[in-house]
Amino acid sequence: MENMSYTETFTLTGFGDMGNIKYVYFVFTLIGYLLIVFVNVVLVLVIFLERSLHEPMYIFLCSLSVNALYGTAGFYPKLLADLLSETQVIPRAGCFIQMFVIYGYAAVEFTNLTVMAYDRYVAICKPLHYTNIMTDRVVCKLLFGAWLFPFCSMALGILFSSRLPLCGNHIERLYCSNWSVVKLSCVPTTLNNIVGFVITVCAIFPPLFFILFSYIKILIVCQKSSKEFRRKALQTCLPHLTTLINYSITMLCEVVLSRLDSTALPQIVVSTLSLEFLIIPPLLNPLMYGLNLPEVRKRVRNMLQRKQVRALCNIPHTVKT
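Above: the chain's sequence. Below: its structure in token form.
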């Protein structure tokens, strides 16, 4: 049993036999990843360089983009390498590291959205006390908790999975997922299932309850306020709501596909639905906030204009004699 259960590598069988079309997938994946990196790096730089944007809302937005860069870095480089390889394998240690990065990204995304909901709640429901409540110290504590709790919970779940003796090494996904590894276990996985259920419940329901509580309070205040106040509240909450709904839908697709037998569906459909949370939120979030928040949009435009002016000034001029 010990010899049979030990494996040094996993084989990712979700790629199937793509033939030469894998090069087309490679090009589109590379373009998508570079675009994700570009828009998130631009947003982080704009918020970091512009002192007027050193406010809680923009700091939380910066944290969201940093998390997107972190999560996609754990997936896209490996995916691009696999698309150019004849065999898609990953070392055992690399598999669990990838799981930690991807699941950590997914959990941090939700906790970041939770602290952003709290920020909107304070800004709309307690505007006169906003600066006294959302101090630098409070913002640091919220960010620390938003990153620490997900990583600790994900590390605990992956630790339990890494100790399982495995009777196989084929993972029917494009990346290492916890449930795919657990299904390879040679022994009963009751303890893993309980731990996974508890972690999932703790990672989803407390943040979800707090987000719903925040928006119920916001709706109550808006009902008692003027149309102009409601318009401003909607303008500041719409990007966050769009991000939250979009992320919830993409994660629901991933959870459902990981637990159900999806062999009846075409492989391209399964792959696309399972990767939505690594494609849409990292790309849509900075575009959504960059296009909808006037301060961010104005700073991005000013930064691009300054770069254009500097480029024109550096062009050498020939002197006619």
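The two ends are 87 Å apart (CA to CA).
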